[in-house]
Amino acid sequence: MSQMNRRRALQLLAALGTTGLAAACGTDDTETPVVGKPIKIGLIRPESGVGKAIGEDIENGFQLFLAMNGQQLGGHPVTVATVDEGDNAKSGQAAVDSLLAQNVLAMTGVVNSTVMSGIRDAVEKARVPLIGSNASPPSLQSVVYIWRTSYVLDEPGRALGSYLRRTLPAGSRLAIVTPEGTASQDVINGFRDGFGTDDPRIIGDPILTTANPTPGENEFSAQINEALSRQPDGIFCFYSGTAGEQFIRQLRRSRWFGDIYAPGFLTEGNILTDLRSTLVNADDSLKAGTIQTSLNYSADLNNNANRIFASAYRKTYNVSPTTYAMASYDAAQVLDKAIRLAGAEPTAQQVNLALGKIGQIDSPRGPWQFNQPRTPQQKWYLRKVQFDGRLLSNVLINEIATLG
What we know:
alpha/beta, eight-stranded mixed sheet, six-stranded mixed sheet, 14 helices, 41% helix, ABC transporter substrate-binding protein, Leu-bd, signal
């Protein structure tokens, strides 16, 4: 997979042309670049299971940055060693051990929060920086060598909760439905902190469904019926991938057409294409009931960094970029800056020190910088599922919070 992604990313050379690459990379044709010694970066991602699609996105984002920057980071030619993180602490530990044996200068990736928590001590002991580009559980505290370019898992709910607290009318009724598990609890805690833990507009305790990532067509029916018995105006949920698609299908099949609110994972990727018949009438108009999500990125953000990134990503991979791809692209940006600061003979420890000095990142999501816990201080956006031309998309509505 790594070889295929690299080949596809290199197609950017032809797609953008000389002028496009110069604009993307910010280089001057009159300069002769100084090339340092080759380095190796480890990329940790799931190669099977429910996290595979996210893993592909983070590999695509990282490889795209390399393709746009001469296959270098900080002036050094780069080899990327890709390893499978699996889905548990043991498999994650094996992935880290494999990369450390290859003397990588730094590591990136990691999709599963259980894996991230499980490899924490190994990364800290090895003193090799890990720039995580997805998994970021709130419990990951007091780390020195683990940085994250994504978000803390309670933040999407916190951002959306604070927005809905301000905008939902008095007397509104909101039900919460999420799968069982620690990640759901983190999201719920963030949402209730943002919305207000005692706000009467939230009706009843959260309703928990199975955490099955590939649920059957009626797997959520009992919990959906329980939620609808509370006569809500809106439902806040936390699903992604196949589970998110099934939840929306089963909710609409139950003849409930109220508003759905969720962290942006619910509608990331190709899910809107698959849900078109569920969400769109025969006359190509949207059915009743909106889907609004909060996320740190939208592919239609109007800034120069995103115009370059999103255009290059679409030309290379024939799809719009997700937040997962963007965070991995930024992980490469972060490493590029830190390795350059670390000097001609960078060590893992020097790169880690430099990570604290890189300052603001000019990102497709908008400018951000690392905070004290080594996560981004960044803006959060409200997105609404609606037509962008004839394409059903997550359309940016407005900025709703700055967190971190």
